[in-house]
């Protein structure tokens, strides 16, 4: 790599060194494909998308290089950790017993990943604080700091470079299971339901039109993808790989990622766009367990890509950043559709079973030893249930649902006994502490739901709050089939919103095959509708300094090119 031009006159910094390595690996990969263009971008029997030891996915740029790294070194589990992360595994086990020490194996070398960090400096004192501490400050306090984004290089090790398998065999086995994937069906009959649904229901950012012809392309002027029909390809994998290539192109359209203009197609500049599409489609195919070969028409660009890489490693940085943004849009859309399909199957199964209508019991009168309960005692001792109900109804003041004391059962305390009940009322007796009577008014679930819509849940007990959570989950599920609630970050990546029934929050983050990875959580307000809650989340996200800083980074990084 001695022929590379260095930006830093004093010698290469950590970013320069990382880019040199990335460029060297890309040159080696492209030269291999140039010798045999039928070889796939990644080895068949593909690994899953790389993640750190805690399960967080690396972005598209780092993911691509880590996959090449795994392929070159023969790593079977694409999980990585920093040296500090390895050290943190050395904690005492249950009951304080000492566990074998986890360490990086002697002689192992780390691999660079590039992440954006933020430096926070006080405007007057010039004092630096951690970004996590900065996020905890009030809005007024944040105004006193300047926040500077910076691309920073971190060094990571694959788990195979540690003694994790011997020191933590249970964790190693779990990682092996998580990263094993069944072989996909070969041949033209292989189908990938999320993408098939995307095509059928027109859910991509532009129309995708399969036609019985021989060309696959993205038309900028029509903003449309044209592909041959799946049956024309030698396998389903080939069809989806080609489609991912054109979908990557389509993310560069005006109003999406703005990578190109119509006049640039066919020009030398388009060679880089073709590399973005090839790398993007290879990475997306890899994520879903498919093998991606280079598009035959792209072979003509191989020499140009090699020349650019050998001239300047910065070429790979700008290219991989575009790959990162494009693959983020594609995978998040596909993952969202996959989640909806799974939800739909689950709901059909639930609807197939006969659901018993719930009855709720709301306490409207509680009579204890300080009250004159002798008339009720006499009727109870006689076994006069009808008389008990008639007398109990006189204690009802007509105020309706008692929000704090509404339950799914009439008996909720130790010693409770249901002694009389009709269509609308129930009487509960508890013989402890002198004997108490509780008059319960019965409501249907629909009546409870109507009450929640009118009055919210500010003073409600757990039972009514539970119904409110069910309502929010149903509303969100219904909305998700029509449109996807999302927050688009300045760098082009998209954060998705999901209602978390357990925590009663709207969770915001990146969707994965295992579900949404929440980066932010906002309490759900049951006093307003779902749309108002989603709008509030969007406003709160726009106010977060980390995305303001990211906007600044995106503008500087792109040179404001539009």
UniProtKB/TrEMBL annotation:
EC number, as in UniProt: 2.7.7.-
Short name of one Pfam family: MPTase-PolyVal
Start and end residues of each N-terminal domain: 21-157
Entry annotated with the keyword Acetylation: no
Keywords on record: Coiled coil, Nucleotidyltransferase, Transferase
Enzyme class (EC, first level): transferase
UniProt domain Polyvalent protein metallopeptidase: residue ranges: 213-316
InterPro entries reported for this sequence: ArdC_N (IPR013610), MPTase-PolyVal (IPR041459)
Top-rank taxon: Bacteria
Entry coiled-coil feature ranges: 527-557
Record's signal peptide: none
Protein name listed in UniProt: DNA primase TraC
Organism listed in the record: Bacteroides ovatus
């Amino acid at each position: 790599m001695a022929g590379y031009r260095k930006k830093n006159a004093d010698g290469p910094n950590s970013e320069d060194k990382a880019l040199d390595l990335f460029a060297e690996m890309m040159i080696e990969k492209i030269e291999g494909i140039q010798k045999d263009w039928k070889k796939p971008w990644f080895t068949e029997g593909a690994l899953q998308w790389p993640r750190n030891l805690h399960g967080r996915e690396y972005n598209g740029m780092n993911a691509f290089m880590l996959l090449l790294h795994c392929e070159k070194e023969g790593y079977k589990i694409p999980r990585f950790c920093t040296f500090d992360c390895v050290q943190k595994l050395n904690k005492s086990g249950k009951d304080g017993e000492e566990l074998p020490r986890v360490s990086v194996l002697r002689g192992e070398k780390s691999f660079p990943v590039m992440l954006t960090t933020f430096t926070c400096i006080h405007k007057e004192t010039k004092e630096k604080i951690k970004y996590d501490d900065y996020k905890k400050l009030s809005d007024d306090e944040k105004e006193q700091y300047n926040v500077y984004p910076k691309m920073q290089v971190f060094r990571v090790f694959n788990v195979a470079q540690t003694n994790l398998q011997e020191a933590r065999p249970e964790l190693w086995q779990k990682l092996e299971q998580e990263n094993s994937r069944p072989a996909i069906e070969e041949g033209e009959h292989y189908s990938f339901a999320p993408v098939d649904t995307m095509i059928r229901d027109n859910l991509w950012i532009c129309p995708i039109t399969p036609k019985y012809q021989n060309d696959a392309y993205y038309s900028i002027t029509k903003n449309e993808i044209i592909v041959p029909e799946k049956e024309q390809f030698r396998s389903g994998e080939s069809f989806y790989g080609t489609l991912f290539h054109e979908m990557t192109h389509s993310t560069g359209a005006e109003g999406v990622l703005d990578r190109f203009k119509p006049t640039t197609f066919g020009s030398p500049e388009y060679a880089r766009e073709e590399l973005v599409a090839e790398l993007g489609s290879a990475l997306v195919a890899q994520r879903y367990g498919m093998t991606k070969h280079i598009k035959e028409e792209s072979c003509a660009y191989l020499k140009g890509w090699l020349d650019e890489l050998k001239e300047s490693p910065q070429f790979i940085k700008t290219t991989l950043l575009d790959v990162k943004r494009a693959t983020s849009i594609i995978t998040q859309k596909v993952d969202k559709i996959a989640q909806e399909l799974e939800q739909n199957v689950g709901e059909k199964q639930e609807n197939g079973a006969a659901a018993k209508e719930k009855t709720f019991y709301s306490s409207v009168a509680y009579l204890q030893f300080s009250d004159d309960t002798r008339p009720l005692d006499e009727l109870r001792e006689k076994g006069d249930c009808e008389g008990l109900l008639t007398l109990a109804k006189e204690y009802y003041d007509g105020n309706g649902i008692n929000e704090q004391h509404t339950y799914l059962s009439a008996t909720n305390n130790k010693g409770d006994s249901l002694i009389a009940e009709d269509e609308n009322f129930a009487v509960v007796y508890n013989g402890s502490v002198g004997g108490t009577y509780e008059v319960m008014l019965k409501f249907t679930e629909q009546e409870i739901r109507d009450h929640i819509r009118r009055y919210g849940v500010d003073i409600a007990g757990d039972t009514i709050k539970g119904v409110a959570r069910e309502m929010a989950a149903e509303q969100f599920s219904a909305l998700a089939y029509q449109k996807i609630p999302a927050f688009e970050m300045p760098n082009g990546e998209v954060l998705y919103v999901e209602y978390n029934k357990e925590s009663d929050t709207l969770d915001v983050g990146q969707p994965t095959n295992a579900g949404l990875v929440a980066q932010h959580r906002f309490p759900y307000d049951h006093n307003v509708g779902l749309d108002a809650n989603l709008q509030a989340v969007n406003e709160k996200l726009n106010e977060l300094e980390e995305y303001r800083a990211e906007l600044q980074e995106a503008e500087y990084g792109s040179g404001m090119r539009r």
